[in-house]
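In this supplementary section we document a worked example of the pipeline. Step one takes a protein sequence of length 331 as its only input; no multiple sequence alignment statistics are reported here. Step two produces a three-dimensional model, which step three serialises into structure tokens for compact storage. The input and output of this example are shown verbatim.
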Amino acid sequence: MMLVVERLLAGVMVVPFVLGMTSGDGARRDVAFRFSDPQIVESSGLVATGPLFVTVNDSGDTGRTFVVDGAGDTVGGATWGEATDVEAVAPWGEDRVLVGDIGDNRGNRDSVRLLRVPVERETREVEPEVFALRYPGGPRDAEALLVHPVTRQVLVASKELLGGTLYAAPRELSASRDNVLRPLGPVIGFVTDGAFFPDGRHLVLRDYGRAVVYSYPALERVAEVELPDQEQGEGIAVDDDGTVYVSTEGQRSAVLRVALPRALRDVVLPPAPVASPTPTPSPTPSAEPTTREGQELPESVSTDAPVWPWLLAGVLGAGALVVLLRSLRRR
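The serialised model returned by step three reads:
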């Protein structure tokens, strides 16, 4: 019942934003593959690593990952026994992932756990490295786990009704004591998953109906993209090329590719290298995020359609109205 209420409330919160968008690129259903394994019934997190994908089942399952190929077939995985409430998975290099046992619907877990496990083309039992996380100020429910692609710093986004918070773990995780999270800033509510783009300067968080891109570390909202309809969308991943994938709960559910608006891709993806006939001096490194050399990251990128047709129509309409009024005065 609580989940149904959450989804209804999340839908109410999403509506105003969706209505404000005219770009439908993100809403098309482009099926990348379907999970063929009947044991994958509640995909609650997603990682794209090379030609493989990794997912985990939602709470209620034992501790395990599923390694899936591009056709949707399970080709490997890791198992480790009991789990409390697994909700997320995030990449850790090319051959390992962090599993987020971070769900806390009742708000009674003093600390939550991360488990580092291998990604292999075989299924076997492992002894994962375990890291405990603790929130300042008390427990939080969370379903989104992110790892920075360069520094490997761990981030967690809380799932809350009126807006969540993005938290950062210490740069170096300790396996012998609690790793106390620190808040970085506010993010959207009802976050169900998140991921970094390859540049490490942008991240994306999703809820049940939209994906919001933020600059990092400033956490300025860059753009918002409507997601395709899904039964219960709780997974999002970005591969090395910047392609976005989303997954949902449900047996044999589809993993979809999401087409980002071109203006957004130009911001979050680094430009392809261009061969230069003569050497050019390297630019001075900047502490501020940039999209390419010398171009500062804009505060926001609009995914709306061009406004000039509307302006032109308005001018023509106003002109027609003036002509009509003058003709009426002559009568």
